[in-house]
Amino acid sequence: MNSMSDVVVPADTSAPVSRSRGAGCASAERVLRLEASALVMLAAGLDDTFERAVECLDGITGRVIVTGMGKSGHVARKIAATLASTGCPAFFVHPAEASHGDLGMIARNDAVIALSNSGETVELADIVAYTRRFAIPLIGITSKAGSALGEQTDVLLQLPAAGEACPLGLAPTTSTTLMMALGDALAIALLERRGFSSADFRDLHPGGQLGRALLKVSDVMHHGTDLPLAPAAARLSDVILEMSAKRFGCVGVIDDQGRLAGVITDGDLRRHMTPEMFTQTAGAVMSRHPKTIRGNALAVEALGQMNAHKITSLFVTDGEHPIGIVHVHDVLRSGVA
Fold first, then answer.
1. What pLDDT, on the 0 to 100 scale, is given for residue 330?
2. pTM of this structure
């Protein structure tokens, strides 16, 4: 990233503020406009340096250690968490604790991202020295290229010269917003570079709404001996026994190639309730072209299909061959709704 000194996008603080709002709203609007303007400056200044930072993180075989002191430390924790949740193993190391033994948490095949707005944070000195001693890649995020941190980095991501939103110019506000956004940008660029998928994301987020939203049919389906199936030549008496034993209210009918040819539901049996019923075969009674779903489809898609067609079960197929069955209760129990 360049020095940003030639990229100036002034904060738009001239927009009128509604007089019906109080001073608090006016203050909040000023802060948000100042920080938004700084983010525009940050985006405008991206260059090959950012690409080198992404390449550096993608090239390591170890983990990414993120560090910072004070408010920068809080941001560093969030950046580490975001990296870890998007497929890049990462964790936070407190710089003061690093000086008292936690340097041992940093391995030779790791990379370090150090955050300091001023670049002169004393507590970072030992981590910086450690990376230089053992040739551990160091990415610095700071607003001052000529600072102690800026001069030692392998890749310097320099923040634009934007004042803090704090009217005293003291409380870290704009600077921490820029650091947070830059950390997000690194994580997402790395995610896209590595081809991190929604399936990978679900594996790292099994709990909560994210995990439930990305749950697959294969995660909730019944398979193997639980699968209610009968050959097309089977007598209806055998079909009834299979339906009663498996308790899904339906039986899949398969042809001599093992392909799903149709389905018989308990409703189909009632409709064919005649004296000749038990002389008929499954193939003669079945409903052809049953509704099916893929194993790698999302569970919420299965729920949508069952609701749309007013059915309670779907056979899961691989091509034309049944590999499982999913019931509406299975999906609802998993928390998908």
1. 87
2. 0.64
